[in-house]
């Protein structure tokens, strides 16, 4: 008999930290709204959600690390928007965010969800953060809940 571990999309009792960057706030605000809506729909209580704002995507991993270290947080969701063309150091910011966030997940052994959009254009970023329609903040919420549930089941 094969043993299978799965994570269910049940947010009941799950405690979620969200780090969101102010840079390109018109995009990240919509990611946050989609994320919060999906968390609550999945059963996460508002009192169990903490939101932490940082200046830009580069700063996300440090705040994510501090949240992930807390015993009262089960998973951290990282939301940001890095758009090519706005700066020559696009690659540096996007890569630092991705690597930093991946490191926090492994160092803290907790789900740390990466939803820092990295797009060529503002249009592409808009299409991934729609109020109604595609919104990567919603996907991030579901990934956080599934991974939190999965880790609970693996550790049983
Ligand atoms: N931060 C972003 O979140 N998105 C960007 O597109 C971006 N660009 O293009 O520069 C950006 N830069 C700021 C960076 O994240 C830091 O806040 C800043 O370098 C201070 O450390």
Account of the 3D structure:
This protein has 156 residues and is an alpha/beta fold. The chain has a single domain (16-155), classed as Rossmann fold (3-Layer(aba) Sandwich), CATH 3.40.50. 46% of the residues lie in helices and 19% in strands. It is built from five helices and four strands. The chain has a four-stranded parallel β-sheet, sandwiched between helices. Bound molecules: 5-nitro-6-ribityl-amino-2,4(1H,3H)-pyrimidinedione (INI).
Topology, element by element:
Blueprint lengths: L15 E6 L3 H17 L7 E6 L5 H10 L5 E9 L6 H19 L3 E8 L2 H6 L8 H20 L1
Parallel strand pairs: 1-2, 1-3, 3-4
Helix pairs in contact: 1-5, 2-3
Bound molecules: 5-nitro-6-ribityl-amino-2,4(1H,3H)-pyrimidinedione.
Catalogue the unreliable spans.
none
* Extended strand count: 4
Q: Output the CATH homologous superfamily.
A: Lumazine/riboflavin synthase
The structural domain count equals 1
Beginning-to-end CA distance, first to last residue: 18 Å
Task: Tell me the helix content.
Answer: 40-55%
- The neighbouring-strand order within the major sheet is 2-1-3-4
- What is the mean predicted local confidence, pLDDT? 96
CATH fold naming: Rossmann fold
């Amino acid at each position: 008999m094969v043993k299978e571990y799965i994570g269910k999309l049940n947010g009941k009792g799950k405690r979620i930290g969200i780090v969101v960057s102010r840079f390109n706030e018109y995009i990240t605000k919509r990611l946050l709204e989609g994320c919060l809506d999906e968390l609550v729909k999945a059963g996460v209580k508002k009192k169990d959600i903490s939101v932490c704002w940082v200046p830009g995507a580069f700063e996300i991993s440090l705040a994510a690390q501090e949240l992930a270290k807390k015993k009262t947080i089960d998973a951290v969701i990282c939301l940001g928007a890095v758009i090519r063309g706005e700066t020559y150091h696009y690659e540096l910011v996007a890569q630092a965010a991705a690597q930093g966030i991946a490191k926090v997940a492994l160092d803290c052994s907790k789900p740390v969800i990466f939803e820092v959009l990295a797009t060529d254009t503002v249009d592409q970023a808009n299409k991934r953060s729609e109020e109604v329609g595609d919104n990567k903040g919603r996907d991030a919420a579901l990934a956080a809940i599934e991974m939190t549930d999965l880790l609970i089941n693996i550790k049983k």
